[in-house]
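Section 5: illustrative case.
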């Protein structure tokens, strides 16, 4: 809009424009590949302030900014996805416990440490009896909640240096490290 004071389409905003002291505006969408990420609005206190070459330059600027914003958002989304994929490669998605792969690594480290320190390790296998009946009668949502609550309680029973791993379904393995006697 090159003249707020004479353009009839600007009547709803004319009083505000006069109050703020501007008479012309260029408003440009910030878009790249048909994706609009915002708009740039530049105001002037002079009527007819924006010549065609300036508008073309501002359009190019708006499109460059949009491309940059989309690139940053895409990179951030990709980084988050990579972090999530890396986490899921080593953890159970429901309980966030280590999975078989991470448990194996921790087991190998625990064995090496136990040999150096002349200590013991223990592996406990835990299976929840009749868990299938919970899922069948109350649904998987309740079953998942029960698994999460069970994990919370198990974590209260072990040391920070020990590991609980979900093997699948209702099966868990607990790796206890740095033990000094079998009892």
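Designed sequence:
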């Amino acid at each position: 809009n090159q003249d707020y004071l004479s353009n009839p389409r600007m009547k709803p905003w004319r009083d505000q424009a006069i109050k703020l002291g501007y008479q012309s505006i260029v408003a440009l969408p910030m878009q790249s590949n048909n994706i609009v990420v915002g708009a740039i609005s530049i105001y002037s206190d002079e009527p007819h302030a924006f010549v065609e070459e300036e508008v073309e330059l501002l359009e190019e600027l708006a499109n460059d900014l949009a491309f940059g914003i989309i690139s940053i958002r895409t990179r951030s989304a990709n980084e988050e996805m990579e972090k999530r994929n890396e986490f899921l490669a080593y953890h159970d998605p429901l309980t966030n416990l280590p999975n078989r792969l991470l448990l194996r690594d921790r087991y190998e480290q625990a064995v090496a440490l136990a040999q150096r320190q002349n200590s013991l390790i223990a592996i406990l296998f835990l299976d929840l009896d009749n868990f299938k009946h919970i899922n069948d009668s109350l649904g998987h949502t309740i079953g998942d909640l029960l698994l999460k609550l069970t994990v919370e309680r198990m974590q209260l029973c072990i040391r920070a240096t020990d590991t609980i791993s979900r093997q699948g379904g209702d099966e868990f393995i607990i790796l206890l490290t740095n033990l000094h006697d079998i009892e």
